[in-house]
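PROTEIN DESIGN WORKSHEET
SECTION A - STRUCTURE
LENGTH: 121
TOKENS:
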């Protein structure tokens, strides 16, 4: 296991982006439990740590794909919303974006000891 952050740096209800050995990882504190998943959206590769965390659900700020931070499973595919979504859905770009598949995220084993977060990479 590798030391990656201090527990106190990831306040309850928040997310933190870290980079370890070429891996971009999102740490999330949900009700005092730290979870770790890839920090790249399984839909369009955006940084998930720039999105929102609601309970155990991460929502990508770019295309609104949603993932369970505990399991890494995608629960809502990415999509475009509002006027942009209406315009692009009627174009070739809309067909291309609409065909992008959403993949599950890799999860990492986490251990917290003496205010230090460790990951099994």
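SECTION B - SEQUENCE
RESIDUE ASSIGNMENT:
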């Amino acid at each position: 296991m590798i030391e990656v952050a201090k527990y106190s740096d990831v306040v309850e209800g928040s997310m933190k982006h870290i980079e370890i050995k070429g891996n971009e990882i999102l740490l999330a504190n949900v009700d005092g439990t730290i979870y770790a998943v890839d920090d790249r959206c399984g839909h369009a590769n955006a940084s998930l740590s720039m999105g929102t965390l609601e309970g155990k659900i991460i929502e990508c700020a770019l295309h609104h794909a949603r993932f369970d931070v505990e399991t890494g499973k995608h629960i809502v595919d990415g999509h475009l919303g509002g006027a942009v979504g209406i315009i692009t859905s009627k174009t070739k770009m809309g067909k291309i974006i609409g065909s992008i598949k959403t993949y599950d995220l890799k999860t990492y084993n986490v251990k917290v000891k003496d205010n230090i977060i460790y990951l099994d990479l």
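SECTION C - NOTES
The two ends are 7 Å apart (CA to CA).
Residues 20 and 55 are 25 Å apart (CA to CA).
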